[in-house]
Amino acid sequence: MKNKIQVQLIALREDNNSRSNIKKQLEIIETIHNNDADQLKDLANLFQDRITNPDYTINYVDGLIYEKLLNSQNQEIIQFTSKLCPQGIVPLQSAKKMNYQDLQSLLVKHDLLAADKLTQKKLIELAGVNIQDRNWLYFTDINKIPAQDLQTIDKLWHTHSKGKFGFAVQRQIWLTAEKDWGKLWEKIGWEVDKVPCRYPDEFQWNSDGPKGHLPLFNQLRGVQVLSALFSHQAWNNC
């Protein structure tokens, strides 16, 4: 007789492409224990079926499954997952041959402060700025960053945050707020009662932060740089 988790996983298998039940899917995955070999094996089999589907597209449900399997305490499951997805589930594409496996690893491990710092470093390098000269970007630097690389960074953050984080999420909130920066800061938690949060202690370096809270992006240097980022051609099809 199948247990409750197995029944739920069967339902999850059948509901692969339903957006209306994404919240339910995430809840099912999060109930699985990291040291329950049977549940993890069922989840691993489901994961394999999902990502090998010819019509598969990257999504944050599978991002959570991948994290659950890779962060489990079961070496067999970890090895299975690593072999199945040796470079993760997000294609690490780069127009400048940038290596994104280190960023992916930090996001999968939920080390968001380190991931945020690494994201800023990579953006600076992608813009062609010598990080020894300055560790920030001017708005004129933004268009030097290839669209493909911005999209890869964004997909990594989005996929490994249950859809909460990433530049595209922040941009959508900004557009919904009619490009009102004050409303954006409030909605994504960069300001509290109109007072800017102090870095790093007053930011939330976990999945409990507001939607769009991470990654940070020159938040202390005015709006020109972020405006340039939100206007980048990387988001033309968003």
From TrEMBL:
Lineage top rank: taxon: Eukaryota
Keyword RNA-binding assigned: no
Matching Gene3D superfamilies: 1.25.40.620, Gun4-like
Pfam families assigned: GUN4
Ranges of residues in domain GUN4-like: 94-232
One function term, GO molecular function aspect: tetrapyrrole binding
Keywords for this protein: Plastid
Protein name as it appears in the record: GUN4-like domain-containing protein
